[in-house]
Amino acid sequence: MSHMLKFDLGSEEAEIGAPAPDRLISGSPEFRTWNFEEAPGSLYAGIWEATPGKWRIAYEEWEYFHILSGHSIVTEDGGEPVELKAGNSMIIRPGFKGTWEVVETTRKDYVIRL
């Protein structure tokens, strides 16, 4: 068994999803998720992509991500909008509530801990 794992989009079938209808604010965004790792301790890592739209988000998990392409705006309830473009990284902590708006199809890699 190797102790390395390369994120290879050609090796995994993407899971298709969308925001729950009660969270959708605008557009008809579609998600594609390639979850490459599910490690002990409820740790997940992979690549996520979303098409334009806006929806409410609420985090119970901890997530680090790095934007690979596109343009999104994340806004915490009562806070200022944060523009995210290729090269930007962010951590979202448990308890976060706000919105995610995809302006231009966005792809990110992520590590999530539940």
Account of the protein in words:
With 114 residues, this protein is mainly beta. It is built from no helices and nine strands. Strands 1, 2, 3, 4, 5, 6, 7, 8 and 9 form a nine-stranded antiparallel sheet that branches. Strand 3 (31-39) and strand 4 form a beta hairpin.
SSE blueprint and pairings:
Elements: E1 15-17, E2 24-27, E3 31-39, E4 43-50, E5 53-58, E6 62-76, E7 81-85, E8 89-92, E9 97-113
Antiparallel strand pairs: 1-3, 2-5, 3-4, 4-9, 5-9, 6-7, 6-8, 6-9
Short description:
By secondary structure, the chain is mainly beta.
> In one word, what is the shape?
globular
Q: Strand percentage, roughly? A: over 45%
Q: Helical amount among residues, as a percent range?
A: under 10%
Query: What is Rg?
Result: 14 Å
The largest sheet, given as strand count, sense and whether it forms a barrel, is: 9 strands, antiparallel
H/E element sequence: EEEEEEEEE
Average residue pLDDT: 96
Q: DSSP helix count? A: 0
The parts where pLDDT drops under 50 for at least 5 residues are: none
The termini sit apart by 25 Å
Label the structural class: mainly beta
Task: Please report the total strand number as a whole number.
Answer: 9
List keywords for this structure.
114 residues; mainly beta
